[in-house]
Design goal:
The chain is an alpha+beta fold and 1115 residues long. It has 39 helices and 27 strands. Residues 932-963 form a coiled coil.
């Protein structure tokens, strides 16, 4: 309450702007400030047309009013009409300004427009920084709350407060956030904590904290994945253009992701509607309340009671969607009929007519794109849980939907398709188990009987009712004869299989025989895939495995082939036909284990991080004992990547795969927790990671499947089990049952929330690894302190990011590419380099700085790809700050010869107003004390010394022409500007320039007798300054120089040259110049200023770019 009261009194909204333009309406006696045309509550006569924080700003507003508004007011007869016109004009301007930003999509457009104006005024971002939403809240600084406004934009989290006369602004880029979590402190039970590299900030007192946190979570997730994980991340179409993202888009994305994760549907599937309804469930003889989800190609249902009943209806299986008569018992019902002669009755549907209409449109589209095909060659019996009906053969029509028989099509394609293995490998390479044949058959038959009974009551197709009963049947273990078919149904790979006839065969034809890095990796791993199983001890199984893996790599080059895919595919081939195994692999890699199989296995790392948190929550004693859970996570990584297939006997591991195909990743999480709980005592007593690994490996290797009809097939860790005493055996069915009973309470929504939370940490962990590796390589090669190097890296990365935020991607400015080597992941182009150069380089040359930066970039861009990496950037700065004088002069020299200096250099043709460099001065000067310095003798001796010290192996730099030399002099002159020893430096450089010009002329005369160069020299001498004049440049304000007079005469070029040794020796003759280049430079102050000004410099540049457009619009 205290904070709220202070907010009401001291909130920045209540402050009066220092400058205002007010309109007095007839009848009013005073003026009252009203923000940007908004009417003050309770008053209708006082208007503030414009407000400004500075006199310059309010004058700009007045100028605009004079040009666009004031001259039109004279046409009105009375002041009331004037006031009405101005009011309407101001409101129209506000509406026009914000309409392009989609403000009308917000729930309260007027308030959003007002917040948008304040956001822009307070933070001065470029127009491309789209405000998404805003909230009133408190930001805690220690124990003190600061009441203000939280602004969430597409790239930043911003907070503004004006409290007790103090203004506070916080700007936190989403890409800098390392943790985003809900927490509590001593004063408040629920806050949102934002953690960056060096700070934690708590925000509280939201009206709806759940909504705020979800929006922040979505924004952080979208932005981090868009900017840091673009290797595999594909944005939803609605989010492709960041500047168009709205709060509604983010809420829709969250709902869409939950929908796809819950029903494990393809990433391309877009949710269209979520409708409350009830579904008739014949097994319970009642209607079950829940929600209907409709998307591009699916109708799905989920009961409100978790696990009670779920249904997935692919539209390609739907025959008709019809409205029934509305009654009191069956309000607003519809019937959805599917091909296997089942019908689903939904009631209590709101807006039923529009829903049915949209469903029929999508139904027609699906069947038009993928005509339904029937496989009439299959035997239909109760042991085959496929969705075909024996009575459906040939060509059929249901309503307007044409059903095309696959029998005729397959005959025509038979000759074209490659030779694929026609059945599951286990049916060919079936082993006899240790049990008696009668015992094996009876166990299998009992399971088959139970499943057949279930099919009769709940359905036998992909459209079956999925209830707790089927989960129990899956946990008991699927019969081997049904395993492959049920995997297809549970994963919905059967829909992909039916929708893409001939697709796999074509892929095999296209991919086989091609040799590349991926196929080499596949060949290397083929014989490591279940080598103990007879199916992969001969060419039949190996060839099928090769075809599936190669075809998938051809289908999805982003993933290609990753280790562990071979083990998974081997098991799929055992229980499914070759083409079915391919589509099961597609379902696992692209839907059920997203981002697992790629360059950085981000998805697997995220789930490992989630697994660590679940361990802390469910097994706190184990978590407390294992101080570093990351070691345990490294052991469990293979559990997730191979679904326990690589570390558990095969006959037991396939039961885990059964649960995975039905329940998704949840099954692996809970089984992992059950394994750890069963070994908690041994793990707590283990002394190191190696002993912990031994405990888990022995346990997992002794998990048996008592119901398996086949013999035991050992795991890859069998060598750990050489015990003197027999190790106790655990039955897989018992372990799975325990996992469901003890750890089965995790919902899909909770897991997805944890994944989102930990994805931020994992991506930032990769960023930290990249940073540390780059710094580790660069640090030994430069003299800059490690802490300063770290600051420079952050500036370098932020400069790259700012271009990603606000600039249209240019062809050369590539986005962050995590697949590249660490040093090359962040690179900047010439414009970005120029910004950084202006911020951190000690060689500031006023208006000439930008030109010098461009030349420096060209020098560093050795491979001419118009991009440089951090190492080159830092090496350049290291010379400027810590190099010896000769290194600095050498760099300056190289900046004024090709390739740094080009013919098209925008300043190379305008070095001086007139060629005013003097070559007529004597080489002996008299000093005030009467001593004379013979520069000629001194220079000759220094040239000899330099020649002796010169490294013979060093590549000699080309000599500098007169045009290049004049540019070199101009740079030096610009660098001396505003230096405390400015006059001495100008005197010294004038002397040195004279020496070098004479040296160049001597060389010119000796090397060439041409008249052109000599005429150029005469021109120089004719226009030279008198010997008494010390300034090198007559007019330093090059902006005032006429364009025609800037062109240097071509004939001066000639053969006039000087070398680096000439220049260095000449500069060493002047102590003031030596002092200038050898004085210590402080990079820390530059870094501090750069952190403060980096954003403002970028904003200023972008505003300059937009000014021509604004002027054009005004005209």
């Amino acid at each position: 309450r205290l904070v709220g009261a202070l907010d009401a009194v001291l909130d920045s909204n209540a402050r009066v702007a220092p400058f205002r333009i007010l309109l007095q309406v007839p009848g009013s006696q005073v003026y009252s400030p009203i923000a940007c045309g908004e009417l003050l509550s309770g008053s209708d006569v006082y208007w503030a047309i414009a407000t400004g924080a500075t006199l310059e700003e309010i004058n700009q507003h007045w100028d605009w009013l004079e040009q666009n508004l004031l001259h039109t007011l004279s046409v009105f007869d009375n002041k009331d009409d004037v006031a009405s016109f101005v009011k309407g004009k101001v409101k129209a301007l506000i509406a026009e300004e914000t309409s392009s930003r989609l403000a009308e999509q917000e729930e309260e457009p007027e308030k959003f427009r007002e917040a948008l104006v304040k956001f822009e005024a307070r933070f001065n971002f470029p127009e491309a920084e789209k405000l998404v939403t805003y909230y009133s809240c408190c930001c805690w600084k220690g124990k003190v709350p600061r009441q203000g406004w939280l602004y969430l934009s597409i790239n930043h989290l911003c907070f503004y407060s004006f409290f007790l006369g103090k203004e506070l602004k916080l700007i936190v880029p989403w890409v800098d956030i390392q943790k985003l979590e809900r927490t509590s402190n001593v004063f408040l039970t629920d806050t949102i904590r934002i953690t960056t590299q060096n700070k934690e900030r708590d925000f509280s007192m939201f009206l709806n904290l759940d909504e705020v946190f979800k929006i922040m979570e979505q924004l952080a997730d979208v932005t981090l994945r868009r900017l840091l994980d673009n290797e595999v991340f594909d944005l939803d179409p609605d989010l492709q253009e960041p500047s168009q993202i709205t709060k509604r888009d983010l809420e829709a994305r969250a709902q869409n992701e939950f929908f796809r994760a819950f029903f494990r549907l393809p990433r391309q599937e877009k949710l269209h509607a979520v409708v409350e309804c009830s579904l008739w469930t014949p097994f319970s003889r009642c209607h079950t309340a829940g929600r209907m989800f409709t998307s591009d190609r699916y109708i799905c249902f989920a009961s409100k009671e978790d696990g009670c009943c779920n249904v997935i209806l692919p539209l390609r299986e739907v025959v008709s969607i019809e409205k029934m008569e509305d009654t009191s018992l069956l309000p607003n019902p519809i019937i959805v009929s599917i091909r296997s002669k089942m019908a689903f009755q939904f009631i209590e549907l709101k807006d039923r007519d529009n829903l049915v209409e949209s469903l029929l449109v999508r139904l027609k589209r699906v069947h038009a794109n993928h005509p339904v095909r029937y496989d009439t060659s299959r035997d239909e019996d109760m042991t085959s849980p496929v969705f075909h009906s024996a009575s459906m053969c040939g060509d059929h029509k249901f309503g307007d939907l044409e059903m095309v028989s696959s029998q005729n099509i397959e005959e025509s394609e038979k000759d074209k398709s490659p030779c694929l293995h026609p059945e599951a490998l286990i049916s060919v390479f079936q082993q006899s188990g240790s049990q008696s044949p009668d015992s094996r058959v009876s166990r299998e038959q009992i399971k088959i009987s139970l499943w057949n009974d279930h099919f009769v009551e709940y359905g036998r197709t992909v459209c079956m009712f999925r209830t707790e009963k089927i989960r129990k049947l899956v946990a008991m273990g699927i019969p081997e004869s049904l395993r492959g078919k049920l995997w297809l149904l549970f994963s919905d790979a059967v829909t992909d299989l039916a929708s893409h006839p001939g697709y796999y065969g074509n892929l095999v034809e296209e991919s086989m025989g091609k040799c590349c890095l991926v196929t080499e990796e596949i060949e290397r791993d083929l014989h490591r895939s279940l080598p103990e199983h007879p199916a992969f001890q001969n060419e039949t199984g190996i060839a099928a495995l090769r075809r599936v893996l190669t075809a998938y790599a051809h289908r999805n080059p982003k993933i290609g082939y990753c280790q562990s895919m071979n083990i998974l595919t081997s098991v799929l081939l055992l229980y499914a036909k070759e083409e079915e195994a391919f589509w099961l692999l597609v379902a696992v890699c692209e839907r059920m284990l997203p981002d697992y199989f790629n360059h950085r296995v981000i998805g697997a790392q995220v789930d490992q991080s989630v697994f660590e948190e679940l361990i802390k929550e469910h097994l706190p004693e184990l978590a407390e004992h294992m101080n570093d859970l990351s070691a345990l996570a490294s052991i469990s990584l293979s559990w997730f990547l191979t679904l326990f297939l690589s570390i558990m006997p095969l006959e037991s591991a396939v039961s885990v795969v059964d649960c995975f195909f039905y329940d998704g990743i949840k099954a692996i999480f809970q089984l992992g927790l059950a394994v750890l709980e069963a070994n908690a005592e041994g793990l707590c007593s283990s002394k190191d990671d190696g002993q912990a690994l031994m405990v888990l490996s022995r346990f997992l290797d002794h998990i048996k499947n008592e119901d398996s009809p086949g013999p035991s097939v050992g795991s890859h860790h069998a060598f750990f089990s050489d015990d003197q005493e027999p190790y106790p055996v655990t039955d897989i069915a018992d372990l799975i049952r325990d996992s469901y009973e003890k750890f089965g309470d995790q919902s899909v929504e909770q897991i997805e929330h944890l994944r989102c939370k930990h994805r931020i940490r994992v991506l930032q962990g990769h960023e930290d690894t990249t940073k540390q590796n780059v710094l580790r390589v660069v640090t030994p090669e430069v003299s800059i302190l490690p802490e300063d190097l770290e600051e420079l890296y952050d500036l370098f990365k932020r400069e790259h990011m700012m271009s990603c935020y606000w600039e249209q991607p240019r062809p050369v400015a590539l986005r962050h590419d995590p697949s590249r080597p660490y040093a090359e992941q962040y690179r900047i182009d010439a414009r970005q380099f120029t910004h950084l150069f202006q911020l951190v380089s000690p060689w500031t040359c006023g208006a000439h700085t930008e030109i010098l930066a461009e030349r420096t970039f060209r020098l560093l861009d050795e491979n001419m790809d118009h991009l440089i990496e951090f190492k080159a950037f830092v090496s350049c700065l290291d010379v400027m700050y810590n190099g010896e004088m000769n290194e600095k002069i050498k760099m300056l020299y190289r900046l004024h010869i090709p390739p740094a200096l080009t013919e098209n250099d925008r300043d190379s043709q305008s070095p001086l107003k007139n060629p005013l460099l003097s070559t007529s001065r004597p080489l002996v000067f008299g000093k005030p004390n009467g001593d004379a310095v013979d520069y000629q003798r001194q220079l000759k001796q220094m040239m000899k010394d330099l020649a002796k010290e010169k490294d013979k192996t060093e590549k000699e730099l080309p000599k500098m022409s007169q045009r290049e030399f004049i540019q070199f002099c101009k740079t030096l002159y610009s660098m001396f500007h505003e230096d405390p020893e400015e006059n001495d430096l100008y005197q010294a450089i004038a002397t040195v320039t004279t020496l070098l010009l004479q040296i160049g002329e001597v060389g010119q005369r000796s090397s060439s007798s041409g008249s052109c160069s000599q005429e150029g020299g005469e021109e120089l001498r004719a226009s030279a300054l008198s010997p008494e004049q010390d300034l090198v440049f007559a007019d330093t304000n090059t902006e005032k120089i006429p364009q025609d007079s800037r062109t240097f005469p071509e004939e001066v070029e000639g053969d006039w040259t000087v070398s680096l040794e000439h220049i260095l020796a000449s500069l060493l003759t002047e102590q003031s110049l030596v002092n200038f280049f050898e004085k210590p430079l402080d990079i820390k102050s530059k870094l501090e200023n750069a952190k403060i000004n980096q954003y403002s410099l970028k904003t200023l540049e972008m505003s300059r770019q937009s000014q021509p457009d604004l002027k054009l619009n005004n005209v």
